[in-house]
Amino acid sequence: MPRLPGNEQLVTRLGKPLCSLREINVLDVQEKERLYRALLPPRLFSVLGITPEASLGADGAPSVEFIAPVGLGFTRIVARRSPGERDPLFFLEISDTAYHQIELSFCIITDPDAPRFQVDVDAMGKDNWFASLGRNIPEELRSMQAGLFPNQVRRGLRLFTEFFPRFERFVDGLGVDIITAEPLSYDNAIRYEKYGFDYLTGRTLMLRINEEFRPGGRLFSRLDGSTPFRMPGAELTVRGRSWAIHDGILDEPWDGVRIYKSVGDFAGVNTFPEREPEEEVR
Q: Span 119-139, mean pLDDT?
């Protein structure tokens, strides 16, 4: 049963309770799109120039695509102003887990009118899969100087704050208690902390990173200007630390950090309490 005040169980048009994405995905196209559309923040439709009831842009081209295969507990939602745009405004992937949880796999929100940085491809122009298959250092440097975070090709629209409460209510409406995720960078982990997440794995790493970025720590001493991503003072901000970690300042790869949120609860975790205020560009 739902835990959030005023929330209701998600049901089909015939009143049958829904408990998973897999159950939603067997419904007819119109009904499952109606349910998934509730995840989208109203301001997104304003940016797209369409009404929440529509899926088509002004030119008749699909602007919101729902990929929800029958037989799978997996859903992808992609919103574009036009088919020719390289980067979607909104990209969401969610899935059922084996433990009756919902995984927030990806949520990428970009401003299509902002300058683009080619940090997602290598020197040959091939997709580098979040820099795991090679880096584009000149573009990363331009991106960092523009105030972006690692792997961010454009600045965001600041819509995650509007999206996440809708997502949590959606998960709650399925009677699911736990949301899981895997932060792909240090700044992602810190950002999720602000939304009430705790750590399944990686909390010890996050606390160790905080200690080692303090004066006298191992990571603090490595902020020696040896690369543009390791400048003194980077330890003071989430952005600075995240770029240094992206640059390989740790003795281990950024991996194995898993987080969760209990629906309706705020964990209150803060592994970088002394960070300086900085602009949130996502």
A: 82
Q: Which CATH architecture has domain 21-205+253-262?
A: 3-Layer(aba) Sandwich (3.40)
Res. 59: pLDDT tops 80: no
Mean pLDDT for the chain overall: 92
What's the confidence (pLDDT) of residue 244? 98
**What is the value of pTM for the model shown?**
0.93
231-270 core/surface letters (b: 16 or more CB in 10 A; e: else):
beebbbbbbbbbbbbbbebbeeebeebebbbebeeebebe
Tokens of 217: 């720590």
Break the chain into its structural domains and give their ranges.
Answer: 21-205+253-262
